[in-house]
Amino acid sequence: MWIASIKEASQKVWSLAKKYWQVIVGFLAAIILFKAFRRPADPTEILKVSNDTHDKVVDALNTAREEEQKAVDAALKNHDATIEKIEKKYLEEKKELTDQKREEIKKVIEDSRENPEDVTKKLAELTGFTLTDS
Q1: How far apart are CA 45 and CA 29, in angstroms?
Q2: Taking the complete model, does pTM exceed 0.70, yes or no?
Q3: What is the pLDDT of residue 42?
Q4: Position 38 pLDDT exceeds 70
Q5: Residues in CB range of 124: below 8 A, 6 or more apart
Q6: Residue 76 is inside which H or E element, if any?
Q7: Residue 32, pLDDT above cutoff 90
Q8: How many other C-beta atoms can be found within 10 angstroms of the C-beta atom of residue 108?
Q9: What is the pLDDT of residues 75-93, one digit of tens each?
Q10: Helix axis angle, 99-111 to 43-92, nearest 10°
C-alpha cells in the first residue's frame, strides 16, 4: 500500500518538474554561480583590520592616560601652590602652622578639588586668611 502512495507522489513530482523545469534549472544555476564566484574571507585582510582596530584602541587609551596624568599633575601643582601660599601667609602673620592644621588644610583641598572658589572659601574660614590667585 505504501509503495503505491510513493509511486503516486513520485509521478506528481515528476509531472511538476517537467512543467516547471525552468524554475528548477534557474534555482540550481543560482546556487552553482553563488558557490563558484563567492569570495572566501581573506584571513590576512581580517587580521589587518583587527590589528588596525587594536592600534586605534591602544592610541585612544594612551591619549586618555596622558590627559589624566596631566590633570593629576596640574592638581598636585595647584595643591602645592595653595599650601605654599598658606604657609607664606602664616609666616607673615608670625603664626605657626601645626601638623594638625596642615592636615585639615590638605583635607579641605582634597574634598573640594573640583571647585576652586569653594576651596578658597573653606580655607579662609579655617585659617582666617583670604587667598587670591596672582
Answers
A1: 30
A2: no
A3: 80
A4: yes
A5: 130, 131
A6: helix 43-92
A7: yes
A8: 20
A9: 888 877 877 887 777 776 6
A10: 140
Predicted local confidence at residue 134, as pLDDT = 44
Average pLDDT over residues 60-75: 91
Cell numbers of 72, please?
A: 593629576
Residues 6+ apart with CB under 8 A from 93: 129
Say if residue 105 is exposed, middle or buried (CB neighbours under 10 Å; 0-12, 13-18, 19+): buried
Show Cβ contacts of residue 126 under 8 Å, excluding neighbours closer than 6 positions: 101, 104, 105, 108
Residue 125's alpha-carbon distances to 104, 114, 115, in angstroms, are 12, 18, 16
d(Cα 78, Cα 82) in Å, to the nearest integer? 6
